[in-house]
Amino acid sequence: MRLAIIGSGPGGYFAAVRAAQLGASVTIIEKAEVGGTCLNCGCIPTKTLSASAEALRKARQLGEYGIDCSGEVRPDMSRIMDRKNKVVSTQVRGIRSLLKVRNVKLVEGRGRLIAPGRIEVEKSDGTKEIVEADKVIIATGSRPARMPMFPFDGENILSSDDALNLTKLPRSMIIIGAGVIGCEFACIFAEFGVEIIMVELLDRAVSTEDREISEVLERELKKKKIKLLTGVKVEKVENRPDGMHVFLAGGKELAAEKLLVSIGRQLNTEDIGLEALGIKMGERG
Questions:
Q1: Residue 95 vs residues 24, 30, 34, 164: alpha-carbon distances, Å
Q2: Does this model's pTM top 0.85?
Protein backbone atom coordinates (compact mmCIF):
# COMPACT_ATOMS: atom_id res chain seq x y z
CA MET A 1 0.00 0.00 0.00
CA ARG A 2 1.17 3.52 -0.82
CA LEU A 3 0.55 6.00 1.98
CA ALA A 4 1.03 9.77 1.77
CA ILE A 5 1.02 11.97 4.87
CA ILE A 6 0.69 15.76 4.70
CA GLY A 7 2.48 17.13 7.77
CA SER A 8 5.41 15.78 9.76
CA GLY A 9 4.50 16.75 13.30
CA PRO A 10 3.90 14.16 16.05
CA GLY A 11 0.75 13.00 14.27
CA GLY A 12 2.41 12.73 10.87
CA TYR A 13 5.82 11.27 11.57
CA PHE A 14 4.57 8.74 14.14
CA ALA A 15 2.01 7.53 11.60
CA ALA A 16 4.72 7.36 8.93
CA VAL A 17 7.06 5.25 11.05
CA ARG A 18 4.32 2.88 12.17
CA ALA A 19 2.94 2.44 8.65
CA ALA A 20 6.45 1.75 7.35
CA GLN A 21 6.91 -0.88 10.08
CA LEU A 22 3.73 -2.56 8.85
CA GLY A 23 5.02 -2.68 5.29
CA ALA A 24 3.53 0.38 3.62
CA SER A 25 5.41 2.52 1.11
CA VAL A 26 5.28 5.89 2.86
CA THR A 27 5.82 9.45 1.62
CA ILE A 28 5.64 12.33 4.08
CA ILE A 29 5.16 15.91 2.85
CA GLU A 30 6.34 18.87 4.94
CA LYS A 31 6.43 22.57 4.01
CA ALA A 32 8.62 23.72 6.91
CA GLU A 33 10.66 21.43 9.16
CA VAL A 34 10.01 17.92 10.44
CA GLY A 35 8.64 17.75 13.96
CA GLY A 36 5.81 20.23 13.44
CA THR A 37 4.64 22.76 16.00
CA CYS A 38 5.55 20.59 18.99
CA LEU A 39 9.23 20.38 18.15
CA ASN A 40 9.88 23.64 16.33
CA CYS A 41 7.65 26.26 17.98
CA GLY A 42 5.72 24.59 20.78
CA CYS A 43 6.35 21.99 23.47
CA ILE A 44 10.09 21.44 23.09
CA PRO A 45 11.34 25.05 22.76
CA THR A 46 9.01 26.36 25.49
CA LYS A 47 10.07 23.61 27.90
CA THR A 48 13.71 24.41 27.10
CA LEU A 49 13.12 28.07 28.01
CA SER A 50 11.19 26.97 31.07
CA ALA A 51 14.18 24.87 32.17
CA SER A 52 16.42 27.95 31.86
CA ALA A 53 13.94 29.98 33.90
CA GLU A 54 13.85 27.28 36.58
CA ALA A 55 17.66 27.11 36.69
CA LEU A 56 17.74 30.89 37.14
CA ARG A 57 15.21 30.70 39.97
CA LYS A 58 17.26 28.04 41.79
CA ALA A 59 20.49 29.97 41.28
CA ARG A 60 18.94 33.00 42.98
CA GLN A 61 18.09 30.82 45.98
CA LEU A 62 21.55 29.31 46.44
CA GLY A 63 22.21 31.50 49.47
CA GLU A 64 19.30 29.80 51.28
CA TYR A 65 21.22 26.53 50.97
CA GLY A 66 24.45 27.96 52.33
CA ILE A 67 26.10 28.34 48.93
CA ASP A 68 27.99 31.56 48.27
CA CYS A 69 27.27 32.75 44.74
CA SER A 70 28.93 36.14 44.46
CA GLY A 71 27.81 38.58 41.79
CA GLU A 72 24.52 39.10 40.03
CA VAL A 73 22.75 36.09 38.54
CA ARG A 74 20.97 37.21 35.38
CA PRO A 75 19.72 35.71 32.12
CA ASP A 76 21.69 35.99 28.88
CA MET A 77 18.86 35.79 26.35
CA SER A 78 21.11 35.24 23.36
CA ARG A 79 22.74 32.18 24.97
CA ILE A 80 19.40 30.90 26.26
CA MET A 81 18.03 31.01 22.71
CA ASP A 82 21.19 29.36 21.35
CA ARG A 83 20.66 26.48 23.76
CA LYS A 84 17.00 26.24 22.76
CA ASN A 85 17.95 26.14 19.06
CA LYS A 86 20.53 23.39 19.68
CA VAL A 87 17.98 21.24 21.52
CA VAL A 88 15.48 21.65 18.67
CA SER A 89 18.01 21.03 15.88
CA THR A 90 19.29 17.88 17.58
CA GLN A 91 15.78 16.45 17.71
CA VAL A 92 15.04 17.52 14.12
CA ARG A 93 18.10 15.56 12.98
CA GLY A 94 16.87 12.61 15.02
CA ILE A 95 13.48 12.58 13.30
CA ARG A 96 15.07 12.90 9.86
CA SER A 97 17.33 9.95 10.66
CA LEU A 98 14.37 7.93 11.92
CA LEU A 99 12.45 8.52 8.70
CA LYS A 100 15.48 7.59 6.64
CA VAL A 101 16.06 4.36 8.58
CA ARG A 102 12.44 3.36 8.01
CA ASN A 103 12.69 4.19 4.28
CA VAL A 104 10.09 6.94 4.56
CA LYS A 105 10.43 9.36 1.65
CA LEU A 106 10.43 13.00 2.72
CA VAL A 107 9.19 15.52 0.16
CA GLU A 108 9.75 19.12 1.28
CA GLY A 109 7.14 21.57 0.07
CA ARG A 110 3.49 22.56 0.44
CA GLY A 111 1.12 19.71 -0.34
CA ARG A 112 -2.32 20.17 -1.89
CA LEU A 113 -4.83 17.47 -2.78
CA ILE A 114 -5.82 17.82 -6.45
CA ALA A 115 -7.70 14.52 -6.80
CA PRO A 116 -8.36 11.43 -4.67
CA GLY A 117 -4.95 9.92 -4.04
CA ARG A 118 -3.05 12.69 -5.86
CA ILE A 119 -1.13 15.44 -4.05
CA GLU A 120 0.63 18.31 -5.76
CA VAL A 121 3.68 19.49 -3.82
CA GLU A 122 4.99 23.00 -4.50
CA LYS A 123 8.63 23.23 -3.48
CA SER A 124 10.56 26.27 -2.29
CA ASP A 125 12.27 26.67 -5.67
CA GLY A 126 8.91 26.86 -7.44
CA THR A 127 9.03 23.38 -8.97
CA LYS A 128 6.17 20.94 -8.42
CA GLU A 129 6.01 17.22 -7.79
CA ILE A 130 3.01 14.89 -7.88
CA VAL A 131 2.74 12.30 -5.10
CA GLU A 132 0.32 9.44 -5.71
CA ALA A 133 -1.05 7.25 -2.91
CA ASP A 134 -3.75 4.73 -2.09
CA LYS A 135 -4.41 6.38 1.27
CA VAL A 136 -3.78 9.91 2.55
CA ILE A 137 -3.40 11.12 6.13
CA ILE A 138 -3.91 14.83 6.79
CA ALA A 139 -1.80 15.95 9.77
CA THR A 140 -1.33 19.63 9.01
CA GLY A 141 -1.49 20.91 12.60
CA SER A 142 -2.16 24.49 13.64
CA ARG A 143 -0.68 27.97 13.96
CA PRO A 144 -1.21 30.99 16.25
CA ALA A 145 -4.69 32.45 15.77
CA ARG A 146 -4.81 35.90 14.19
CA MET A 147 -7.19 38.79 14.71
CA PRO A 148 -7.24 42.06 12.73
CA MET A 149 -6.91 44.00 16.00
CA PHE A 150 -3.54 42.34 16.69
CA PRO A 151 -1.53 42.26 13.44
CA PHE A 152 1.66 40.31 14.17
CA ASP A 153 4.80 42.18 13.10
CA GLY A 154 7.39 40.01 14.87
CA GLU A 155 8.82 43.09 16.57
CA ASN A 156 6.22 44.76 18.80
CA ILE A 157 3.12 42.60 18.38
CA LEU A 158 4.28 39.04 18.90
CA SER A 159 2.79 35.61 18.32
CA SER A 160 3.96 32.68 20.42
CA ASP A 161 6.24 31.76 17.49
CA ASP A 162 7.82 35.23 17.61
CA ALA A 163 8.29 35.03 21.39
CA LEU A 164 10.43 31.93 20.92
CA ASN A 165 12.96 33.92 18.91
CA LEU A 166 13.52 36.97 21.10
CA THR A 167 17.22 37.58 21.62
CA LYS A 168 16.74 40.67 23.79
CA LEU A 169 14.50 40.83 26.83
CA PRO A 170 11.96 43.68 26.93
CA ARG A 171 11.47 45.61 30.14
CA SER A 172 7.74 44.93 30.12
CA MET A 173 5.18 42.86 28.24
CA ILE A 174 1.40 42.70 27.98
CA ILE A 175 0.04 39.23 27.23
CA ILE A 176 -3.41 39.01 25.66
CA GLY A 177 -4.95 35.69 26.69
CA ALA A 178 -4.46 33.69 29.89
CA GLY A 179 -4.76 30.22 28.45
CA VAL A 180 -2.11 27.53 28.74
CA ILE A 181 0.27 29.17 26.25
CA GLY A 182 -0.10 32.68 27.65
CA CYS A 183 0.44 31.54 31.25
CA GLU A 184 3.51 29.51 30.31
CA PHE A 185 5.16 32.47 28.58
CA ALA A 186 4.15 34.76 31.46
CA CYS A 187 5.95 32.52 33.98
CA ILE A 188 9.05 32.18 31.79
CA PHE A 189 9.48 35.88 31.06
CA ALA A 190 8.61 36.95 34.61
CA GLU A 191 11.44 34.74 35.88
CA PHE A 192 13.73 36.43 33.37
CA GLY A 193 12.84 39.79 34.96
CA VAL A 194 10.20 41.09 32.54
CA GLU A 195 7.27 42.99 34.07
CA ILE A 196 4.14 41.09 32.95
CA ILE A 197 0.49 42.14 32.70
CA MET A 198 -2.00 39.54 31.46
CA VAL A 199 -5.42 40.39 30.02
CA GLU A 200 -8.12 37.71 29.78
CA LEU A 201 -11.63 38.10 28.36
CA LEU A 202 -13.07 35.27 30.48
CA ASP A 203 -13.40 35.27 34.26
CA ARG A 204 -10.31 33.16 35.08
CA ALA A 205 -7.00 31.89 33.79
CA VAL A 206 -6.95 28.56 31.88
CA SER A 207 -10.73 28.62 31.71
CA THR A 208 -10.87 25.28 29.87
CA GLU A 209 -9.57 23.53 32.99
CA ASP A 210 -11.29 22.82 36.31
CA ARG A 211 -11.85 25.89 38.45
CA GLU A 212 -9.56 24.50 41.19
CA ILE A 213 -6.68 24.40 38.70
CA SER A 214 -7.33 28.03 37.76
CA GLU A 215 -7.27 29.02 41.44
CA VAL A 216 -3.94 27.30 42.07
CA LEU A 217 -2.39 28.79 38.93
CA GLU A 218 -3.64 32.29 39.70
CA ARG A 219 -2.00 32.10 43.14
CA GLU A 220 1.28 31.10 41.48
CA LEU A 221 1.01 33.99 39.02
CA LYS A 222 0.53 36.37 41.93
CA LYS A 223 3.62 34.95 43.70
CA LYS A 224 5.63 35.68 40.56
CA LYS A 225 4.29 39.27 40.61
CA ILE A 226 2.40 38.74 37.35
CA LYS A 227 -0.61 41.05 37.17
CA LEU A 228 -3.69 39.24 35.84
CA LEU A 229 -6.78 41.12 34.68
CA THR A 230 -9.77 38.85 34.01
CA GLY A 231 -13.23 39.52 32.59
CA VAL A 232 -11.97 42.47 30.54
CA LYS A 233 -12.23 43.17 26.84
CA VAL A 234 -9.57 44.81 24.68
CA GLU A 235 -11.07 47.64 22.65
CA LYS A 236 -8.04 48.96 20.80
CA VAL A 237 -4.27 48.55 20.46
CA GLU A 238 -1.84 51.29 19.43
CA ASN A 239 1.84 51.04 18.60
CA ARG A 240 3.44 54.29 19.80
CA PRO A 241 7.07 55.43 19.95
CA ASP A 242 7.16 54.67 23.69
CA GLY A 243 5.73 51.17 23.28
CA MET A 244 2.47 49.28 22.95
CA HIS A 245 -0.72 50.77 24.39
CA VAL A 246 -3.74 48.58 25.07
CA PHE A 247 -7.14 50.17 25.71
CA LEU A 248 -9.66 48.15 27.69
CA ALA A 249 -13.43 48.42 27.89
CA GLY A 250 -14.27 50.90 30.62
CA GLY A 251 -11.51 53.29 29.65
CA LYS A 252 -8.47 51.70 31.30
CA GLU A 253 -5.18 51.99 29.40
CA LEU A 254 -2.16 49.68 29.71
CA ALA A 255 1.33 50.24 28.31
CA ALA A 256 4.32 47.97 27.80
CA GLU A 257 7.33 47.56 25.54
CA LYS A 258 5.98 44.42 23.83
CA LEU A 259 2.60 42.83 23.23
CA LEU A 260 2.31 39.03 23.11
CA VAL A 261 -0.96 37.77 21.64
CA SER A 262 -1.98 34.32 22.84
CA ILE A 263 -5.65 33.87 21.93
CA GLY A 264 -5.51 30.27 20.81
CA ARG A 265 -4.60 28.48 17.59
CA GLN A 266 -6.22 27.98 14.21
CA LEU A 267 -6.09 24.86 12.07
CA ASN A 268 -3.98 24.58 8.92
CA THR A 269 -6.75 23.19 6.73
CA GLU A 270 -7.34 25.95 4.21
CA ASP A 271 -6.00 25.68 0.67
CA ILE A 272 -4.96 22.04 0.89
CA GLY A 273 -7.63 20.87 -1.54
CA LEU A 274 -10.26 19.59 0.88
CA GLU A 275 -13.13 21.58 -0.63
CA ALA A 276 -12.36 20.35 -4.14
CA LEU A 277 -12.70 16.76 -2.92
CA GLY A 278 -16.06 17.45 -1.31
CA ILE A 279 -14.79 17.30 2.27
CA LYS A 280 -16.82 19.53 4.58
CA MET A 281 -15.23 21.39 7.47
CA GLY A 282 -16.67 22.84 10.66
CA GLU A 283 -16.66 26.49 11.65
CA ARG A 284 -13.10 26.29 12.98
CA GLY A 285 -11.78 24.50 9.90
A1: 18, 13, 7, 21
A2: yes
